[in-house]
From TrEMBL, chain A:
InterPro entries cross-referenced by the UniProt entry: Metal_Hydrolase, TatD-like, UCP005295
Protein name listed in UniProt: TatD DNase family protein
Organism: Chitinophaga filiformis (Myxococcus filiformis)
One Gene Ontology molecular-function label: hydrolase activity, acting on ester bonds
The organism's place on the tree of life at top rank: Bacteria
From TrEMBL, chain B:
Source organism: Chitinophaga filiformis
Protein name: ERAP1-like C-terminal domain-containing protein
NCBIfam families: EboA_domain
Domain of life: Bacteria
InterPro entries xrefs: EboA_dom (IPR047715)
Length: 328, 295
């Protein structure tokens, strides 16, 4: 989530839109392996498609306030493999998800037990490319218990694990997450450690895990810092994502970071690895990903309906002209 | 027999009601008394829940008129009501009206309010933690409040609230303090901040400072207040770093941290500035003066 550290007031001013970065990434294809589309609008989907995002992964997460019953979890998981997947397809973006019990809500043990019972029926669903996002938030005993239980589920299902590392006490939390994954016999190559920063990246890479970086304004990584990371550590096992959600975040973080890397003289192949290929390599280990689908989903049939609902409402044109002040 | 309340509930109830009377219209007070009568014997849970939710409609949401900013609970313990609106104060009073003798029934009903609470109700409920019966029953709920993403709810748990410092175990307490830093809360308003300072929290905060420096971000000067009593060979170079800061308030934070340390090199460092040392010993420089400057 976002905090208001160091906001000066100019962040609240309207920003003149400059799409010059779009020129730099023309023709590139991007994969955002962590974005919470449930919390985003159709405008975001359109902008992502326009910027070259062809596929995404939506990890199951915390919706901003605690759920009080298992049924709302079930409905949420269903929406990730159902409605949201369909909504995404209408914009030509292939949608995958990871399913898991997030660390915050693992602390409600009564509920957590009930969620663990329904999890297996979701993690074997088609297009579920991992167990995630799981790991630590406060680093409590309950969080550890359900993190371990879900590592076992992932291991049995042969699925990659997407680890959320904590905001607070991050360095130790990250180390502990990796220690426990190894203790459960997981191959580090099946584990994506997310939300890294300058203080955590070295150990994550040295121990053979995938290192994901979230480009998220004010609280996580900025993309200028990301450029420096790639300059220092190269592109092996590194990937970037937006983790865009209900906070001040940017669903175009991956294309924008690619543009900035290009501007900073980073090799095109490295950009390709960090903003597209590495995430696919990591999550395709689930056996649930086929790149051919990135293209077939592009044959967008706007008249398709999901359970009778379409994202298009009566008479609306599929695309709106953002430059015009007329809305018809 | 085990006591439901760990303070004089009746005395507190009377003081609180006195303040409510001063701030309410006749009509509102009549409504409140009617609700109290309708609560019945045995109490109607439905009436209790309904009234809790309906309070703002019938009592109003204007700031409370009170000569004092707090109500005494017991020796050395006060309940802060500064800036409270009437609905919040009445909700807190209403919570005291549910009979607490049947522990299980009481906990079930109060938990039910938490589960269905909107933002303002949550703020009232969490602020009321030190007043609820069966204090040991609310530990998990408090940690849920710390996990909340909603500013006013976080504030209700973290600021001017004596419950967390008295009831949370160390790791949960440390989460509260860290979350307060992460969400830009006025750290000095956390009750029990210095009493609950600990080695582990100091180490975690130092890691956090390193992360922020690595990201080119500033570190909150109040962070060093919690490191001061635990300065050692590992973190002393961080204290030296802020001692040499060009930002005055950071240097002052370093000086205050050294003043609370027993580590010899830290004491020596403070001796290097007679001005800061004297300002501290004469109380012209304190953590409160720092808090006022960075506010």
């Amino acid at each position: 989530m976002c905090s208001s550290h160091e906001l000066t007031g100019k962040e609240f001013q309207p920003i003149a839109t400059s799409s010059s970065y779009m020129e730099r990434i023309k023709g590139m294809r991007f994969f955002d392996p962590h974005v919470h589309m449930t919390s985003r609008t159709t405008d975001d989907y359109q902008a992502m498609a326009d910027a070259g995002v062809v596929a995404i992964i939506e990890p199951a997460f915390w919706l901003g306030q605690p759920r009080t019953g298992v049924d709302t979890f079930r409905d949420y998981f269903n929406s990730l493999i159902g409605w949201e997947r369909f909504r995404s397809s209408q914009f030509g973006i292939k949608h995958y998800c990871t399913i898991g019990l997030n660390s915050k809500e693992a602390n409600n043990e009564r509920l957590a037990e009930a969620v663990m019972e329904i999890l297996p029926s979701f993690i074997y669903k088609e297009g579920v490319v991992g167990v995630g996002e799981i790991g630590f938030d406060d680093q409590t005993a309950a969080e550890e218990k359900y993190y371990r239980a879900q590592l076992e589920l992932a291991k049995e299902a042969g699925l990659p694990v997407q680890i959320h590392t904590p905001h607070r006490d991050k360095k130790k939390g990250t180390q502990r997450s990796m220690d426990i994954a190894l203790e459960h016999g997981l191959d580090p190559h099946m584990v994506i450690v997310d939300h890294n920063n300058e203080e955590t990246v070295k150990e994550v890479l040295d121990r053979g895990f995938w290192a994901a970086f979230t480009i998220y304004p004010f609280t996580k990584m900025g993309n200028e810092r990301m450029v420096e990371i790639v300059k220092q550590y190269g592109s092996e096992r590194i990937m970037v994502n937006s983790a865009a959600d209900w906070g001040i975040s940017d669903p175009l973080a991956v294309p924008k970071t690619a543009a900035l890397m290009h501007e900073s003289g980073i090799d095109l192949n490295d950009i390709h690895l960090v903003t597209f290929r590495n995430a696919i390599t990591a999550f395709a280990q689930s056996g649930q990903m086929d790149e051919v689908d990135f293209d077939t989903v592009k044959d967008v049939d706007q008249s398709l309906k999901f359970n009778g609902s379409t994202v298009l409402r009566g008479g609306q044109q599929p695309r709106i002209d953002k430059q015009s002040n007329i809305i018809r | 027999m085990e006591h439901a309340y760990h303070y004089d509930r009746n005395k507190f109830d009377a003081l609180l009601y006195g303040i409510i009377e001063q701030s309410s219209t006749e009509q509102a007070l009549t409504w409140l008394q009617q609700q109290k009568e309708k609560l019945g014997e045995p109490v109607s849970v439905q009436r209790f829940n309904l009234t809790f939710t309906a309070i703002p409609r019938f009592m109003g949401k204007h700031p409370v008129k009170s000569a004092t900013s707090y109500i005494e609970l017991s020796d050395n313990t006060s309940f802060f009501i500064q800036g409270y609106t009437l609905d919040k104060l009445v909700r807190i009073w209403w919570l005291l009206q549910f009979p607490a003798a049947d522990k299980d029934a009481y906990i079930k009903v109060i938990e039910g309010l938490f589960d269905a609470a909107d933002m303002n109700e949550q703020a009232a409920l969490y602020a009321a933690l030190p007043l609820l019966a069966w204090p040991e029953a609310w530990v998990f709920r408090t940690t849920e409040g710390i996990r909340s993403n909603i500013g006013p709810v976080q504030e209700a748990v973290m600021l001017y609230n004596i419950y967390p410092a008295r009831n949370l175990e160390e790791s949960a307490w440390n989460q509260l303090v860290m979350k307060a830093f992460f969400t830009d809360k006025p750290i000095h308003l956390i009750s029990g901040l210095d009493e609950r300072a600990n080695q582990k929290l100091a180490a975690t905060l130092v890691d956090y400072a390193h992360e922020r420096w690595a990201a080119g971000r500033k570190v909150h000067p109040m962070l060093w207040r919690l490191v001061g009593p635990f300065i050692n060979a590992d973190n002393f170079q961080d204290i030296q770093r802020i001692w040499h800061s060009e930002v005055n308030v950071e240097k002052e934070a370093a000086a205050l941290a050294c003043a609370s340390s027993t580590y010899a090199p830290a004491k020596d460092l403070l001796e290097q500035s007679a001005i800061l040392r004297d300002e501290i010993s004469s109380q012209r420089l304190t953590w409160d003066t720092i808090a006022a400057r960075i506010a």
